[in-house]
Amino acid sequence: MSDIIGIVFIVIGLIFDFFGCLGLVRLPDVYNRLQASTKCVTFGTCSIMFGTFLILGVTAGGIKALVCVVFLLLTAPVSAHVLARGAHISRVKLCDKSIVDRYEEDKELK
After folding, report:
1. Residue 58 gets which letter from DSSP?
2. What's the pLDDT at 45?
3. Alpha-carbon distance 42 to 55, whole Å?
4. What contacts 44, CB < 8 A, 6 or more positions away?
5. What is the DSSP letter of 99?
6. More confident residue, 86 or 93
7. Number of domains, the chain
């Protein structure tokens, strides 16, 4: 039973990763692409790793998959924020259709 649930998690992760890669190709600017890639890593890859844990069980490979899940959940959002902030500081322009710039609003308040 856990093998079937593990395969379901892996398939869901593959779908998230596919749409995240599609977002990297289709979205207009670096900020939107970061959003797509962060969702792709946190939901997609963590789902694949959790499915791997369910299939392997409490073995060396399964524990490593869980450690990877924790590591990805802690580092992916932080790294995306740092990259977006660095791009904004370097004055990388937003897409013309973007209507909100929270970083610029924070600068105006200070």
Report:
1. S
2. 93
3. 20
4. 13, 14, 15, 16, 17, 20
5. -
6. 86
7. 1
Which tokens go with 14?
A: 């593959």
Angle (deg, nearest 10), helices 46-56 and 2-26: 160
How high is the pLDDT of residue 49? 96
Domain ranges, residue 29: 2-109
The amino acid present at 5, given as its one-letter code, is I
Query: Each residue of 41-65: pLDDT tens digit?
Result: 889 999 999 999 999 999 999 999 9
How far apart, in Å, are the Cα atoms of 59 and each of 47, 55, 62, 63, 102?
Answer: 18, 10, 5, 6, 45
5 CB-near residues (< 8 Å, 6+ apart) = 51, 54
Whether 14 contacts 56, CB under 8 Å: no
